[in-house]
Write a structure and sequence with these properties.
Layout (H helix, E strand, L loop, with lengths): L1 H5 L9 H15 L3 H14 L4 H9 L4 H19 L1 H7 L10 H16 L3 H14 L7 H11 L3 H10 L5 H15 L3 H13 L2 H7 L17 H15 L5 H6 L1
Helix pairs in contact: 2-3, 3-4, 4-5, 4-7, 5-7, 7-8, 8-9, 9-10, 10-11, 11-12, 13-14
Length: 254
């Protein structure tokens, strides 16, 4: 893995056959789990070091956050170089619809998430905003992470505009409407009304926010609208923002 980080940027003179073979290995890796997934990614990079998805997959297996970030960043930069800046300008707005963009998009999203995790909000927000400009349809769910970053950075107006841009019938949208009203204006009558509406969308969120119920040890990967899993996913990602609300438990209880 360290060799992959230390290796110079790959030259673009690989034969078409070699690149296609590497791509097939990446496809197989994306559908595999465990050691086989990483073995296939490593083999693909040996054939074609210019494949961004290879670095993204290798980053999954390291326990070092810093090493993972370096791999994501390298994959992102290689993916951008492979596409070329002219390609970005010509295809902005429907990037995800072009299969060849997805390795770059995956690496860039993961790198932005790392920046967000370490608190480099300015860089993370810039990265997320670029991904949404490239793909306004938001197939990757970037808007969810950008909303949290905006709130962490106290850019509440932008967070509110983002909710209007990507409305949905979900607990996340309903409770975030309440949250942004409180963070912007305090515990207003409007916040009360929004909260009552959110509670109808998913009643299980409240007990988790107040601590009456504990989050499960393992946050579920799947959920349905209105169920306990949806509540767990929402609270696990947004609890730190709700904790900013003065006297949160008393207000929610009332």
């Amino acid at each position: 893995m360290q060799a992959r980080l230390d290796s110079p940027n790959p030259r673009k003179n690989k034969s078409q056959g070699t690149k296609e073979e590497a791509q097939e290995l990446i496809y197989a890796a994306l559908e595999s789990n465990g050691p086989e997934r990483y073995r296939l990614a490593q083999k693909a990079l040996e054939l074609d070091p210019s494949h961004a998805d290879g670095y993204t997959i290798l980053a999954e297996q390291t326990d070092s956050l810093q090493t993972a970030a370096q791999l994501f960043e390298k994959g992102m930069r290689i993916g951008r170089d492979e596409l070329g800046e002219a390609f970005f300008h010509e295809n902005k707005g429907y990037f995800w619809g072009l299969i060849e963009t997805r390795p770059f998009m995956r690496a860039a999203m993961n790198y932005a998430a790392f920046l967000q995790k370490i608190g480099d909000l300015t860089a993370a927000i810039t990265q997320y905003e670029e991904l949404l400009e490239l793909n306004p349809a938001d197939n990757q769910g970037i808007s969810y992470m950008l909303f949290i970053s905006y709130c962490d950075d106290e850019q509440f107006r932008k967070a509110s505009e983002l909710l209007k841009r990507y409305p949905e019938d979900s607990a996340q949208d309903a409770y975030n409407q309440t949250l942004i009203e409180i963070l912007s204006n305090g515990l207003t009558d409007k916040a009360n009304q929004l909260f009552l509406a959110a509670k109808k969308v998913n009643k299980y969120v409240v007990d988790l926010l107040t601590g009456k119920k504990k989050l499960p040890a393992d946050i579920p990967d799947y959920y349905s609208f209105g169920d306990k899993n949806e509540a767990a996913v929402y609270v696990s990602e947004h609890q730190h923002l709700w904790n900013r609300v003065p006297k949160l438990k008393e207000w929610l209880s009332n």
